[in-house]
Amino acid sequence: MRLRHAVLALALFTAVPAIATADGLDGAIGKALFDRIWVQAPSSTLANDGLGPLFNEKSCASCHSGKALSAKLTVKPDGTLAHRGLATRLGDAHGVTDPVYGRQIQPRAVSGLISEGTVTYALPDVPGDPLAVIFAPSRGDLAPDTRLGPRQAPSLRGIGLVEKVDEAAVLALAERNRTHPDGIGGRPHLVQVDGKPVLGRYGWKASAPSLSQMTSDAFMLDIGMSSPLAPFPHGDCTKAEPDCLAAPDGRSPTFDNEEISGEMVRLLNAYLKSLAAPKPVDPPPPGAALFASAGCAACHVPDLPAKGGGTVAIYSDLLLHDMGPGLDDGVGEPGVASSEWRTAPLTTLAFRKDADRRYLHDGRAGTLDEAIRAHGGEATAAKTRYEALVAADRAALVAYLETL
Description:
By secondary structure, the chain is an alpha+beta fold.
């Protein structure tokens, strides 16, 4: 293990930072992987090639930035977004992907290839409405049933908490919700791992059961790099893109015959798990009681039982909820309807007060108030109670959220 650390450290650093103690070496190397600018294969350094051939960004840090390590979405004077951290998923309501463009638009390409086109995002005229997505394709038209679904890079602080939640507690919560007076419902997304159903925890649709799977999927889909859990060296390229499939890849025996090894994923996860969420304010602000009485806490459950005992402060039930037509962008995933979304954990709102941090899966909401008002479907009763509050109480509830 020490030899493997040394190989990775030499590949990623000119020298291991002085702040990297023995206990913190995994996280220090993981941060270097997070910040690494990947290049196309072949290159003189095996440890940093394999980019693309089609991709969204060249590094994890390109999409995840700032204190919350989330998307940075700056509104330009013309109403469009100068975006770092927005990607556009493709598919129909049942999760069938586009036959040419695959699961996601890749607006960038390595030298010698053309990208899949350009994407422009514009704010809606009415707050809470969907973003306008303008796609100029370069490889032919989209299939008639393909829809465009913007997805912003989520905050990564506190991301390790999600994996600590006891699966049995989530399943039990789903059962109790069947008789909830607000009709909130909620169901687990069970995905197959080694032939067994396992709770999906990560992603807007709860499609990844573990942090390792989430990290591997992001490397593959956003950067175009393969790993043992996502062994696709040409990323999201389809059979309709033979030039992409024919491009060189960065697979190497040094990295489990992939472009990113399992050990590299583990080290990156060590860094992500070190990103702490804010500590709860004690005593809770007045808005905490309003959050509960409005019904928000029914889905954004403050604490869930942890594996092995104790609790996890996560403000989510990790369940899928039908959020109604307003938040339905027409892009589903296998086993998840286009109107269903995993309850987003609210553990990093305190870090997301800057003007370039936006809310909901596509970043349509510029404020927490807009985000709440955009809720529908199973969240309608809680949203209605929020809107019925006097202005001072709504402000107090939002102020409480900003402490999380």
